[in-house]
Task: structure prediction
Amino acid sequence: MSAIEPSTTWKPRKPVPFPWMYLGWAMLDALTLPASAAPVGVLGTIATYDLLENPPRILEQARFEVVLDGDRYAINVADENLTEQMVSDGRVSYKISDYALHMRHVPNPTASPLLARVWYGPHVLTIRPFVGVLWLALTPYPSRIVQQAGPAPPWPALWKFALKDAAAHALLWTNLVFMAGPVNQRLLRGMEWIWSVSALDTLPARNKEATLYYLDWDPKRLEIKKVRESLLRDRQDGVVEARYRVLQVTNYANLEWPLEFRFEILTHGEKVSMAWLGQIHEFKTAPPVLVPPPVSKPTQVDDHRFIDEALRLNELTYFITNNPWPGTNDPNLRRLFDEKRSRVLATQPRISPRWQLVFAVAVILLSVSTFPVLVLKRGRHADNTKRQQNKNKSTPA
Result:
């Protein structure tokens, strides 16, 4: 198979979601929801518990606000160290993190830049399970995604921090139950994640259609093979690793909502080791979700919509000081990405990857064919030397 050569022109990669699917959702919404439905704001708290200790110990706790606005959502989570905001319209998602807001050792917190990330898709990319659990519990995208992607979503389990770890991808959604409401807006009532060999078998193909593949977070085939063998050896295929369930339900704005919900990690499919418990304290009418979100101070952006597959470039980093956020066709960003491509090209070997492979194979074949000749010559030289020595011994002085 020939290697892919760097392209002479670059175009932003198209979003992962499928347009026809969104068209169907829009038509369904028009039939089932009032055209003037106001955005719904949900306020509450969420905490992480270590259940291996007796009594259970609280590891982290935070306040949250989630806003649902048609296809758009916003998740805001704040604890004593970090404020994190996630907004999405289902096609493009933005995450803004403010690490300095509550950190007292920072001399001037207001001068510390925000950190932002942009990517295609409605899912969350975060190392904080807080945000993932809230996305799971309070947005309709789990229902929408399972209709299209099936039980093996093309991104890692939300509680797995090592995104390159193949084990983070070796899980299937199963036993999904949804609450009452329009099909396109209904929320999750319960589900389980099970270890799955079949999920690993389809991982390379799924990653090629997912944002994470282009973020270079795709586990290698050797790692996938090792995890697969481990699941079979330890008889973990089909064993429950995590589960989500709603504990209390209420009704608001023509939907069922979870008043209390719980996400659990299990050990060997039996004992619960960690749990996230969320509680809703208030519902309210909220202002519309703005996508992209406004920023109040200088922000460093890692934009993962800028892709060059041949060069394995998967992001462009730039700064913004205020709105509007630049789009992927912004001339300045195009110039920055072209400059980045040029720098990478300048460091690439002058021989293309295809010819590098041909050269390597030729060297190996030459070595294999030359080695016997060298051995034979060496043997003949040794025989000739031995004969000459014997002749010298037999000749009288």
Observations:
- The longest strand covers residues 271-285.
- The chain is about 30% helix and 30% strand.
- Confidence is low (pLDDT under 50) at residues 1-35.
- The first helix runs from residue 19 to 32.
